[in-house]
């Protein structure tokens, strides 16, 4: 029997809502996993990617990560991992650094045997490159084999990468696929093979409402997958449906019914009542000890014809202005990449460059043609997160990144259907701090899923 912890999507270094406490929370959750591994006497910690939130963690993040990895190493618990989409660098990976220090093993197409199990790894692969994959894995002599990989896999609802095809074509028979990328834990079985997402260890977005945790996977005759919870910062969700005549007092009253001390407060307002000022509610929550408060008034969306800029929704104003600019499809896509927060700030310059390259390589010159204004830019096509200070950082990154990226921003590409185009409606505002009152929509809509990939 071999028992391992399967974790992933730790997003270390993510300073969510721009507060340092959240950055510490992500590290603390990862530390808990490591301590549980040591206390629980498992034979390995398997990490399915997105160890870091982006490819440029700070030195402090790297040092703290090393400290956690040493905790595992001191207890002789190997750390086996693959590279996720958030942290992927162009050549050498952070994981290679940790491996060179003897603190991690980067899983690949050769077996890494722990106990009775041969572990293999497949890093995140962008959609445009998946057709070329061979799924060739070197043989092993262990009792079981497991593949650790990162992406949105079918047959899960949001899947764009067919796990069944991997299972069929792989030269090794896997008993389980230990997956990362999707932040909600979920398990399915395809024929005899278990497919399981361990989920994120901290809420990388306020949409991640379920308790966070990780998997404990036991390989015996069969594979057994158990969940274990993590003690993470409390998120208080308050849904207020205002009746006619009700307003900000009612929202405050509802928020005030909760113990807010040290919590992240997420308020959604809907209904018939009076307009409210989100800032007034946020201030109320902060006064009562909340670490962060975010108020979304969904009623702003009901009135699409409004052109007046309200404090609650400057995004509308930006969206309106972008429509009037007559940008090419490509430029609109770049605008979205830069302003919205689906792409981690530090990754924007590279992302922009790769999109332009891809378009040019594939001869999509028409994507650079200016479009007439108002030509059906849907709400969803344009960034909803314009007020994010991330947009500022991102702009800097683009310039710092220099090279082709800044140049490209002028004519920009439209995504060659590579699944990474962020044409989704807002789902990262909570994850990124945002303007505090931008709109949010549930990410469950399968049409949005191709782009969830980017965000996850
Ligand atoms: Mn992730």
Beta-strand proportion? 15-25%
Bound molecules: manganese (II) ion
> Would you count the extended β strands for me?
17
How large, in whole angstroms, is the Cα Rg? 23 Å
Kindly report the average pLDDT value: 81
Name the shape in a single word.
globular
- Largest beta sheet: strand ordering: 4-3-2-1-13-14
Helical content stands at: 25-40%
Query: Sheet bearing the most strands, described?
Result: 6 strands, mixed
Number of helices: 14
Stretches where pLDDT falls below 50 for ≥5 residues? 304-310, 373-454
The separation of the N and C termini measures: 33 Å
Q: How does the helix and strand content classify structurally?
A: alpha/beta
Structure characteristics:
alpha/beta; six-stranded mixed sheet; 14 helices; 17 strands; binds manganese (II) ion
Structure description:
This protein is of the alpha/beta class. It is 31% helix and 19% strand. It contains 14 helices and 17 strands. It has a six-stranded mixed beta sheet. A six-stranded mixed beta sheet has the order 5-6-7-10-12-11, with helices on one face. The protein has a three-stranded parallel beta sheet with strand order 15-16-17. Strand 13 and strand 14 form a beta hairpin. Helix 1 runs parallel beside helix 2 and helix 10 (348-361) crosses helix 12. The two termini are 33 Å apart. Residues 304-310 and 373-454 have low confidence and may be disordered. Bound molecules: manganese (II) ion (MN). Residues 9, 50, 84, 86, 181, 456 line the site of manganese (II) ion (MN).
């Amino acid at each position: 029997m071999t028992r391992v912890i399967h974790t992933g999507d730790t997003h270390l270094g993510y300073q969510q809502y721009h507060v340092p406490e959240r950055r510490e929370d992500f590290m603390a959750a990862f530390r808990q996993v490591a301590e549980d591994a040591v206390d629980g006497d498992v034979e390995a910690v398997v990490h399915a990617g997105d160890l870091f939130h982006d490819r440029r963690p700070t030195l402090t993040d790297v040092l703290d990560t090393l400290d956690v990895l040493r905790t595992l190493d001191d207890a002789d618990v190997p750390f086996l991992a693959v590279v996720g989409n958030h942290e992927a660098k162009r050549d050498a990976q952070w994981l290679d650094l940790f491996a060179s220090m003897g603190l991690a093993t980067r899983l690949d197409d050769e077996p890494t045997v722990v106990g009775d199990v041969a572990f293999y790894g497949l890093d995140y692969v962008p959609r445009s490159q998946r057709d070329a994959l061979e799924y060739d894995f070197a043989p092993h002599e262990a009792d079981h084999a497991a593949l650790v990989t990162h992406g949105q896999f079918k047959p899960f609802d949001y899947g764009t990468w067919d796990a069944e095809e991997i299972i069929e074509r792989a030269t090794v028979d896997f008993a389980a696929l230990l997956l990362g990328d999707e932040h909600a834990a979920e398990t399915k079985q395809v024929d005899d093979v278990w497919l399981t997402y361990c989920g994120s260890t901290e809420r990388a977005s306020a949409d991640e409402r379920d308790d966070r945790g990780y998997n404990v996977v036991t390989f015996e005759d069969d594979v057994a997958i158990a969940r274990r919870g993590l003690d993470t910062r409390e998120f208080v969700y308050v849904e207020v449906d205002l009746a006619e005549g009700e307003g900000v007092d009612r929202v405050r009253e509802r928020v005030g019914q909760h113990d807010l001390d040290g919590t992240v407060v997420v308020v959604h307002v809907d209904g018939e009542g009076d307009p409210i000022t989100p800032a007034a509610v946020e201030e109320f929550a902060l006064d009562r000890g909340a670490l962060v408060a975010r108020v979304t008034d969904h009623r702003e969306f009901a009135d699409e014809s409004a052109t007046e800029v309200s404090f609650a929704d400057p995004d509308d104003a930006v969206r309106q202005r972008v429509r009037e600019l007559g940008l090419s499809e490509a430029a609109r896509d770049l605008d979205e990449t830069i302003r919205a927060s689906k792409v981690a700030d530090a990754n924007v310059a590279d992302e922009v460059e790769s999109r332009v390259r891809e378009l040019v390589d594939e001869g999509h010159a028409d994507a650079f043609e200016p479009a007439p204004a108002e030509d059906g830019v849907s709400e969803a096509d344009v960034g909803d997160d314009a007020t994010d200070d991330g947009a500022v950082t991102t702009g800097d990154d683009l310039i710092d990144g220099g090279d082709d990226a800044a140049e490209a921003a002028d004519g920009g590409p439209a995504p060659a259907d590579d699944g990474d185009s962020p044409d989704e409606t807002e789902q990262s505002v909570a994850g990124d701090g945002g303007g505090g009152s931008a709109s949010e929509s549930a990410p469950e809509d399968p049409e949005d899923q191709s782009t969830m990939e980017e965000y996850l």
